[in-house]
């Protein structure tokens, strides 16, 4: 039964990822770049280290994404007034527009994914997801103890 559930879960996750990738491609973005846009929309003026910490990504992968976003005029950087060694990143007006459009597109994907479920089924699904998360968290704790 675990194999069937795992395959079904992977198939759903794959379909969702493809739908999100398609949605992002409509706006000239790659998978993952939206996370930077969403973060900078909520917290403008972050350093590269702060973005890495918030998104749990490597400095190398973030550098490439920031370069692409900067070349597309979606983000800009400026020196910190208090520490000239520090570069702070924020969204341009175009970047803010793209973030908002992506949010709407992602909402549409989620509505497609969950729209067939009743309210009660959504509550039950959330309960199942939370149980799965707790199981994985217990595994992380057990592995840290070893």
TrEMBL record:
InterPro entries: HTH_MarR-typ, WH-like_DNA-bd_sf, WH_DNA-bd_sf. SMART domains: HTH_MARR. GO terms for molecular function: DNA binding; DNA-binding transcription factor activity. The keyword DNA-binding applies. Keywords: DNA-binding, Transcription, Transcription regulation. SUPFAM superfamilies: Winged helix' DNA-binding domain. It holds the Pfam family MarR_2. Residues 1-134 form the HTH marR-type domain. This is HTH marR-type domain-containing protein.
């Amino acid at each position: 039964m675990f194999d069937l559930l795992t395959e079904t879960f992977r198939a759903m996750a794959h379909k969702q990822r493809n739908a999100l990738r398609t949605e992002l491609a409509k706006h000239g973005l790659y998978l993952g770049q939206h996370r930077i846009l969403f973060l900078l929309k909520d917290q403008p003026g972050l350093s590269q280290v702060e973005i890495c910490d918030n998104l749990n990504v490597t400095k190398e992968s973030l550098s490439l994404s920031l370069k692409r976003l900067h070349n597309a005029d979606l983000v800009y950087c400026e020196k910190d007034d208090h520490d000239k060694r520090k570069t702070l990143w924020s969204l341009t007006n175009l970047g803010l527009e793209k973030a908002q459009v992506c949010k709407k597109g992602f909402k549409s994907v989620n509505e497609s994914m969950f729209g067939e479920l009743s309210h009660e089924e959504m509550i039950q699904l959330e309960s199942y997801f939370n149980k799965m998360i707790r199981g994985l968290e217990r595994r992380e704790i057990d592995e840290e103890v070893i």
